[in-house]
Every structure is written in C-alpha cells, then in structure tokens.
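Could someone model uridine-5'-diphosphate-xylopyranose with this protein?
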Amino acid sequence: MEDNQDKPHAIMVPCPFQGHIIPFIHLAIKLASKGYIITFINTEKIHHQITKSSPYHDPKTTQDDIFTEARKSGLEIHYATISDGFPLGFDRSLNDDQFLHGLAHVFSAHVDDLFGKIVNKDSRISCLIADTFFGWPSMIAKKYNLVNVSFWTQPALVFTLYYHMDLLKINGHYDCHDNREDAIDYIPGVEGIEPKDLPSYLQAPNTTTIERRIVHKSVFEDVKKADFVICNAVEELEPKTISALQEKQPFYPIGPIFALNGFTMNTVATSLWSESDCTDWLQAKPHGSVLYVSFGSLACCSREEVAEIAHGLLLSEVSFIWVLRPDIMGSYDNDIFPVGFKDEIKDRGLVVPWSCQISVISHPTVGGFLTHCGWNSVLESIWFNVPMLCYPVFTDQITNRKLVVDDWKIGLNLCDRKPIRRDEIAEKINRLMSGKSTNDLRKNMEQIKEKVEHAISSVGSSEKNFNQFIGDLKVRIF
Ligand code: UDX
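Reply:
Sure, complex below.
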C-alpha cells in the first residue's frame, strides 16, 4: 500500500460563493479518490452557513466538518476554516463592494497566516489549488514553495476573454458597450464575439470600481504565473478556444466536475441555504410539463423585472417551480409578489426560497429551465437534458448565454430587448415548453449531452485530461 509519505497533499481554497464552492468540493472528492490528501479551506461564514442548512449536520458534534461522511468512505480530506475579515452577522450579499474589497486585501493576510501554521506543521504539503478569482495565489505559492494550480470554475471562453484583456484594450473593445457593434475576431481561438456578449466586468455598465479592479489588475496577471490551470469546461464544446489557451499555459478542461465524480458525493453538504423539498409537488405533474425558474445564488432583479416575470408565468399557463431568494431584489423584502399573484397561481406554481436544484431538474416532470445562465446551472441543465430560457444578469452569465443560445442552440433568449415584457415572457415560455422550436432545441440538447457524457467516460477527454493533470502535477511535486 502507498505510504502516506508518498501521497501528494494539496490545500484547496475556493472563493466564498455558492457557485464556486460546489465545483471545488467535487474536485476535492475526485482528487482524494485518486489518492490525494486534501486540506480544504472554507471561510468561517461559509462553514457556518453550510452546517446550519445541512441535513447531515449534527448539532451535538462540536467539531463539525462537511467531509466527515466522505472520510468514513476512506477519503483523506482535512478541513479548516478561516476568517474573511468580516463578522458572521455581516450581510455579504448586500454589501458587495465592501466584501469584495475585504476579500482582495484582508483575506490574503488571513490565508498567509493560516498557511504559515499548516504548511510549517506538515512539510508534505506540496500544492495549492486556489480559485482563479483570487489575486494572491502566486505570492502564497512562492512563499511556501508550493506548486500553484489555478481552478477556473467557468467556461474557457470567459477565461480567454479576461486573459486577453490587453487585446480588447488595444482594439478599443474594452468598456465599449453601446458604442461598438463590430465583432471581436482577434482573440486566439475565438471565431468572433460581439461586444454585447463580453462578461459584464469587461463592459462599462453594471460594473463597480472594485469588481473591475479585482478582475482586471490582479487576477488575470496572477493566473499567468500559475503552474497549471484546470477548468470546469468540456473540450468537445469549446475545442478551438481550449487549444489556443493550451498554447499559452498548461490548461486542462475537466468538466463537468460533478459528473466526472459520478455523483458519488451525496453525503457532503454543499448548499449554503436550506433546500425546500419539491418532490411531492413535482410528482403530481405530467411528464416534461414543469418549468423550473432560478437565478442562482447572487444575481439580483429589479421589482419591475420580478413583477413582469410573475405576470409572464401567469399568462403562460405553464406549471412552474420558482426559486425566489428573499434577497433577489438587492434587499430583504417580504412584499416580493405582485398583488394577487399567490391567489392566482394556486397549485399551478410552487415558489420556494431555495431548492435542491439537482433533484428538481433531474425530475422527469421538469421540461424547461428559465435560468440566469450561471455556469453550474448550464452544465446541470445539459446533464439532465433540460433546454433553457436564458435571462443572464451579470458577470460570465452574459457570455454563457451566447454559448447556450447562439453556439450550441440548446436555449432561447427570454427577451430580445430590455425591458422585459410579460407577453413576450409568456410567449417564450410556451415556445420552450411546447412550441415547434422545442423539438429542435431538444434534438440539439441530446447531441450536446452525448458529447459531455462521452467526455467524462473512461476514454473521454475530461477523464483523460484529469489523469494527465494529476500525472503532470506529480512530476512537478516529486
Ligand atoms: C455565479 C456565476 O454566474 C457562475 O457562472 C459562476 O461560475 C459562479 O457564480 P451562481 O449565481 O451561484 O453563480 O449560479 P450557478 O453557477 O448556476 O451556481 C448555482 C449553484 O447552486 C448550482 O450548482 C445549483 O444547482 C445550485 N442551486 C441553485 C441550488 O442548489 N438550489 C437553488 O435553488 C439554486
């Protein structure tokens, strides 16, 4: 048997957001199942939220740990928590700027402190796997003599657009929203993308100074110093973009990481909020008849948008589950629904603050997904063959929409121009759920799903890339 001394030991640090923590946990499980020792670091706030909402949490245990159950099946995953610089009660979602500023400047000092303690105690720690969205990994990796692995949780297209920000600046496409319509055709591996499809952080509107400073100044300079970049993308879905990136840096598309894991991790809690059980409600509906509506964990909508969507759902006459986070409008508001909405929907709709999305969209009665196009949601939708109605709000979601609707043709735009209107929403919902175009979407979806399924098979690209990555990493470590 392999001695612990010979096992590589990696420290993993995800960005403290739901959409980043989920793929990081899947990656930790996958690496541990390949013989890695993992030390997984969550912020105290994230730890508190996960354990509070987890069905696996035992309030009697003092040393609660999200990987306790995984360890019982033989995986060696240690767990540590760290302050993000803010008290537990501080509302991070409603104080974006302050929080992001803290993450960029205070958090790295706490990481440094913790690494000092952990790495000095255990000299076998050889590798750092940090979220690409941090600006400090190269500094920490150098200081503690660790191999520096960057994990990018979004598609390769988004990565390469940030990566080539300098080209966008030279060509006048940076910050040019509304001023330029000509396609961007000079990014290696990208055939052409319109300025309106750039991630919001590369466009002027909706982007705060702090987001821009973090993404632009530090993050994409720092990732260029990483020894390896792994990405939750699929080679067959973005072949040209990925092969162009591989000419720049060792870049390994290994997605979708949840599927690569074979969903073996249903005993590890990943959710930051308690999940409402929708199974009984779904069970009573006909096959493929339910529209699932969710805007992920961060995106906010205006009161007008929420009202138009509510009216659009009513007009469509389709059954739906709507995940409406209490902070969806950027503040906590009890008065979220238009007058009369709840009385009118009766049993046709179920509105919940948070769901177990995987259980909902894998249910045979779900036939469509109205989504903000968060990357995890897109991958999950593909995996469960559910065509999408796209309403991107910010960050990578804008670019993810282009992949889903324009390139892969597995989704429709919710609206062709803003502001959204209830009659157009109702018409698009009906088109997605039962119109003539739904057959084409479903056929395309089957082909895309087939590619993804093949990618994660034992001879597929994601599995091969993953094995290649751990082989190359071992060579660097030993
Ligand atoms: C955002 C970005 O848009 C995304 O692309 C990026 O990679 C991370 O930050 P988020 O808003 O969290 O992500 O959306 P998404 O990437 O879709 O991730 C949300 C995750 O939460 C999904 O895995 C989804 O299954 C889960 N979820 C969502 C639930 O379990 N229940 C819900 O009610 C809603």
